[in-house]
Amino acid sequence: MVPGTARLTDRPLLDFRIDRRFEVRGQEVRRRVPGRKLKEISKRPAYTDLAAHPVPVPSGFASSPPVRLVREGSMAEESCEGCAGGSLDCEQCGGSGTQKCPTRVKCRACGGGVDACWSCGGTRDRDTRKPPAKAQRQVRTDWCRRCGAHDVACPKCQGQQTMPCGVCKEKGVRPCDACKGSKRVRHDPCGGKGYFTAYVEAEISHPVESDRKRVAAPPHLWWPTSWRAGWRVKHLANVWDKLPPDLPESLRAEVEPQLALARREVARRATLRYLPVARVTVDADPEWVYFAFPDRVGAGTDTETGTDILKVVRRPAKQVVLRVAGIASGAVVIAVLAMVLVLRVIGA
Ligand SMILES: [Zn+2]
Ligand SMILES: [Zn+2]
Ligand SMILES: [Zn+2]
Ligand SMILES: [Zn+2]
Ligand SMILES: [Zn+2]
């Protein structure tokens, strides 16, 4: 390369990720739950000063359940003021445990309608009804108790359209539907327990938020930004961890604002990956652009082992790539080809 004929610019690539864990101390909430739960709730950790109460920060950065605390001395069992022992007198039956019931019900066999009798249809007027077409082959052996005709009546109700009520056995009363005859109903607000448990609780949660900052290779270059290249890797677990001294200035400006301690942050895990890349163009060869970057041989991803070699790739410069990309649409291809030809002819 003859000096003065090549241009070199830094185009470092960046992939920075940070996970932050925060600590959120929620508001105190007064609770009142049905039942006697003093034993259960007093198993929870208790606090006296919520703001100062120490809670361990979950390890790792997976989501974690909130810690539920109860204020020391706030727990009490209170008897329900709306009932006695969890139940109330049944309002539906007035505490009698019974309710009225029809003595007779519609016949289930004939439906309680005109099919009760094929002669009177339940009206007592003989020969006013013919057997239904679909019933021609049925044999009826009972006589109708309404009109007296033979062999025409529903075998269940004998033409009467109703049958004795199977629930009350024609007594006219049955156990109350609401209380099933017990005269009392459950008091729902206290869950039928007759007691409430009152306490003050607070939650401390540790949500995790993730962020990413990237400076990727220009997409038209479709080139290897894979982890195989000699990306530099630096893990930052503390707010005071320093960025690598050889981190290019442009990347430092991207990353540094991300590293400030956030409000309520209690833990972090950050991974900085960067790849120094030089872009080289040669005046005498404008159709090509060269990229030089470290490549690593004899190493897996992320590792500090292995040896850096300098890798150089050659890619078509942008106006040539345009011609290739335009093939998607015929009209666009012709327009682009024409433009490229014009550029060639005028020597641009
Ligand atoms: Zn109650
Ligand atoms: Zn009742
Ligand atoms: Zn009849
Ligand atoms: Zn019947
Ligand atoms: Zn009944």
Poorly predicted tracts of residues? 324-329, 340-348
Write down how many β-strands occur, each being a DSSP E stretch of 2 or more residues.
20
Estimate the strand proportion: 25-35%
Give the ordered list of helices and strands: EEEEHEEEEEEEEEEEEHEEEEHH
> What's the number of helices?
4
Bound molecules: zinc ion
- Structural class, from secondary structure content? mainly beta
Based on Cα principal axes, name the global outline.
Answer: elongated
**Radius of gyration from the CA trace?**
44 Å
Q: What's the main sheet like?
A: 6 strands, mixed
Average pLDDT value?
A: 85
Helical percentage: 10-25%
Whole-Å distance between the termini?
Answer: 23 Å
What does this structure look like?
By secondary structure, the chain is mostly beta strands. Among the domains are: 6-20 and 208-316, no CATH class; 26-83 and 189-205, no CATH class; 318-348, no CATH class. Helix content is 10%, strand content 32%. It has four helices and 20 strands. It has helices at 38-41, 249-255, 318-325, 330-346, and strands at residues 6-10, 13-22, 24-25, 29-34, 46-47, 67-71, 76-79, 87-89, 98-100, 104-106, 162-164, 173-175, 184-186, 195-205, 208-215, 232-236, 265-275, 278-282, 288-297, 307-316. The strands form six sheets. Strands 3, 4, 5, 6, 7 and 14 form a six-stranded mixed β-sheet that branches. A four-stranded antiparallel β-sheet has the order 1-18-19-20. A four-stranded antiparallel β-sheet has the order 15-2-17-16, with helices on one face. Helix 3 (318-325) packs antiparallel against helix 4 (330-346). The chain is elongated and about 125 Å long. Mean pLDDT is 85; it is low at 324-329 and 340-348. One zinc ion is lined by residues 107, 109-110, 116, 154, 156-157.
